[in-house]
Amino acid sequence: MPKNFFLESIRHHLLRALERIRNMLPPAEREPWEKVSLTMEIRSGEVGTVVIYWTQPSPGEVIIKRNLFSLYTRGDLPKKQKVDDPVSRNEEIADEVITKIGSTLSLSFPRQVGSSLNAEQTRSAK
Amino acid sequence: MFTLRNKARIAKGIVLHSNPLYVQFYITARCNLTCQQCNIIYANSDVRECTLSEIEKIAENLAEIGVAIVLLTGGEPFVRKDLPQIINAFVRNGIHVRMQTNGLASEAQLEECVKVGGCDISISLDTLYSGLQNSINGDFEGSWDRAVKTISTVSQYLPPEQSFAAFGCVLSPDNIEDIEDVVRFGTAIGWFTSLVPIHVVDPRTPMNFRTYDDSIAFRPEHYSRVDALMDKLRIMKGQGHLLYDSDEYLEDIKRFVKNEPIQWRRKNNQCCDSPSLYFAIIPNGDFAVCCDHRLPGHGVSTFSPDFPKIYRDQAFKKRVTDVAQGCIGCMYGSYPEITITARYWEATVERMKVFLSKPPVRDWPLNSDKLNEIAVSIRKNRLSEMGSPKVEEISQSA
Predict the structure, then answer these.
(1) Looking at the partner chain, which of B31, B48, B138 has a beta carbon nearest the beta carbon of A73?
(2) Bridge partners, B100 (sequence order)
């Protein structure tokens, strides 16, 4: 079955954010974050949502709104052209989702949890 | 095919390493396939695409810094409705355009792109088996047939004497046995083949182009088959088959699939030649070191009026080189081949022969039926050589 563009994109940008955040931590605190990177998957949730889930260091999930990220903004159709580039905002959102995962797992992370994350729900099965 | 000005730019770049020969411009992240080896369609989704007027400024800036060739890639470049105008913007500025497609470009689009000056195209083709190609393309039924139709259309519109056509072929464990056939097929119709081994990365250390799918990585049981294939391809090239890759590059493929250190960067302290000989641009117009690495920190826009000045600044070059020096290296075809051409005399001569000698004999145009007939004949011959029972099956399908 063909891959889903949006889900694969979100996965990539979250893996990037995981790497960014992990690299800010002392080496001794990185291992649980690496486990999240290795086991994290993304699937569609209920209407308009995306479920981010992982199995290690202990299983859990975060559900976010599907339209949280601005992806594939076109430049060839005048009506869809946008002057503001969403790249920084997308990066901030990815960092916020990852810090949310960190707080769900009680992991240490280098930044405060962002205030604008619209995560609807978090569950940890620790 | 190349203008005099472009030939001079290429020669200057090769000899002096002073101007970028080649720029990869990822004009969109959108695509109509989800090929198993590709991650760039996801990695570049977070930026907006440039508008046409911004791309026109990029073309002017690239001309000013002496760029000879721009590769328009994606995603699938042909999903952009303004692709002909984009091509024209670079052609107007004296830059040679290489178009790239996954094979789903329509006839009308191709006709228009050739009309505005596109005379160089690369189409993705990894096997002569339609089922396998459809699977490699992300389970898109009919994508192999569409690619054959596109090859036919290209042969109808591209001028046989003044053009370049190649297959971009990704080598993976799935198609090791099919690569020779692709090269034979290309040679039979006047197309070159260029190989790129599949790149797989650990999800803990993401890189923009490389897939996370470890199930399609090379494993020890594949190594001897890859070695034998590379040796065979060198022989075939010597016999006149249209393989674009240098011997140096083919030897490095052997090392790369085994996770051994690659050698093509050895004359530059194990570092590639970005940004001196090549660099990349992501869809929003920002400079990138390559398809795998963006510039960390604040982006540098290539459509900014200051870009030529920034590009020549030594501090900027150091910023880029710092990223390149930290890279484990790649085998993406163009970057290695340009470095090899610029730094290894034998490869320089080999490459000059390709571009300065007469183009291969091309009995164009070719319709899809004829192309299918050639493909079936090549598959049959090869299976027959191998004594495979599949010959019967292919004869029936033909």
Answers:
(1) B48
(2) B122
The amino acid that residue B368 corresponds to is: S
For residues A42 and A10, the answer to whether their CB atoms sit within 8 Å is yes
Specify the CATH architecture of the domain B4-366: Alpha-Beta Barrel (3.20)
Q: Which domain holds residue A93?
A: 5-124
Which tens digits make up the pLDDT trace of B91-116? 999 999 999 999 999 999 999 999 99
- Say yes or no for a CB contact (<8 Å) between A85 and B284: yes
Domain extent listing, chain B: 4-366
Mutate to test the interface with A, among B35, B45, B58 (most CBs of A within 10 A): B45
Contact call for A11 and B42, based on CB within 8 A: yes
Stated as kind and residue range, the H or E segment containing B61 is: helix B52-64
Mutation target among B27, B32, B48 for the A interface, most CBs of A within 10 A = B48
Rounded CA-CA distance B322/B316 in Å is 10
Q: What pLDDT score was predicted for residue A36?
A: 97
Which ipTM was obtained for this model?
A: 0.94
**Unique residue bearing structure tokens 């191709």:** B110
Alpha carbons B341 and B337: distance in angstroms, whole number: 6
Which residues in chain A touch residue B41, judged by CB atoms under 8 angstroms apart?
5, 8-9
CB-based contacts of B224, cutoff 8 Å, min separation 6 = none
